[in-house]
Write a structure and sequence with these properties.
Blueprint (H helix, E strand, L loop, with lengths): L3 E4 L4 E5 L25 H14 L5 E4 L7 H16 L6 E5 L7 H6 L7 E5 L11 H5 L5 E7 L9 H8 L5 E8 L16 H10 L6 E4 L4 E7 L2 E6 L4 E3 L6 E3 L1 E4 L5 E2 L11 H6 L1 H4 L2 E5 L5
Parallel strand pairs: 2-3, 2-13, 3-4, 4-5, 5-6, 6-7, 7-10
Antiparallel strand pairs: 1-15, 8-9, 8-15, 9-10, 11-12, 13-14
Length: 298
């Protein structure tokens, strides 16, 4: 079993777009962020993004929600801000989590952001939870696309996985597929279960009939299993903060900017206000190592 160790450039900064989401996906753990319209403050969000740009000018940004494209003019304000960062010495990759609830005329607007947006993570599932735009519109994007599929109570529905892959791999801009295990209730005590995970083994039967699976993990919050060159199974903890009891070191995988513009050290009810000064002074503690290894397979 071979190990490779690398460091990330600080935790990922995940920005909750400050507008609501009309979707009612049953696996969503972020809906509680959108309970008070008066709490949305895009200017406060932008100011917190400026703070994190100063602290970690090379970190990845993720714009998520809610639904980031529910209000495209507001979305473009966030894009323009990251464009400004990168034109002034920063080097941020930017990913956007979306269901792509757009009009066809919006495609050109999004394509004009290809100097800033590294990739779209577009949600498409084995069951249809939201209204979807025509598949062909995804193919018209000039920005790379990864299809994200949450496997929510889908153990007996995985026969549709090859169909989902075939549905989108015909588009040249679709670079990969991530099948995400249901992360509700997942924590350090039950996270690393790739040897016994029934969903993973069912996926392996359907799309990966050969051995030699590669497992990618940061060692704390998430792991991924590469089933094909462009297909990954992903499992993550619902919390991205870990305090090691023996040393009291704090490991943070994601820094959150919520719709009120507060900078938090974890998702949802797990998070507290981030001590930005301490984070800036000891960033190597907050940036966990990534391990890549290949389990032995018979």
């Amino acid at each position: 079993m071979a190990f490779i160790y690398t460091y990330r450039n600080g935790a990922t900064v995940t920005v909750f777009a400050p507008y609501d989401c009309a979707n009612k996906c049953p696996f969503c753990i972020n809906k509680k962020e959108y309970v008070d319209d008066s709490a949305f403050d895009i200017e406060a969000v932008k100011q917190s993004m400026r703070v994190m740009n100063e602290v970690t000018p090379y970190c990845d940004f993720v714009i998520t929600g809610g639904e980031p494209l529910a209000d495209i003019p507001s979305f473009l304000e966030l894009i323009d801000l990251i464009r400004y960062f990168n034109c002034n010495g920063a080097n941020h990759k930017l990913y956007v989590n979306t269901t792509l609830p757009i009009k066809e005329e919006d495609i050109d607007t999004l394509n004009a952001c290809d100097d800033v947006i590294t990739g779209f993570n577009i949600s498409r599932h084995l069951k249809r939870y939201v209204q979807e735009c025509p598949d062909e519109w995804i193919g018209k994007l000039t920005i790379p696309v990864r299809i994200n599929c949450v496997l929510y109570n889908d153990l007996f529905n995985l026969d549709k996985v090859p169909w989902l892959i075939e549905r989108f791999e015909k588009f040249d801009n679709v670079t990969g597929f991530q099948f995400r295990d249901n992360y509700i209730g997942v924590g350090p005590q039950n996270l690393f279960d790739w040897e016994t995970n029934p969903v993973l083994h069912k996926l392996e039967e359907k799309i990966c009939p050969y051995g030699g699976l590669k497992v990618f993990t940061d060692g704390f919050f998430r792991y991924g299993v590469q089933l094909r060159e462009n297909v990954v199974f992903h499992r993550t903890s619902c919390s991205s903060k870990l305090i090691l009891n023996e040393s009291q070191d704090v490991f943070i995988g994601d820094v959150i900017i919520n719709p009120k513009g507060e900078i938090l050290d974890d998702w949802n009810e797990h998070g507290s206000l981030l001590d930005v000064k301490a984070y800036a002074e000891a960033r190597e503690i907050y940036a966990p190592m990534k391990h890549i290894f290949v389990p032995d397979k018979k």
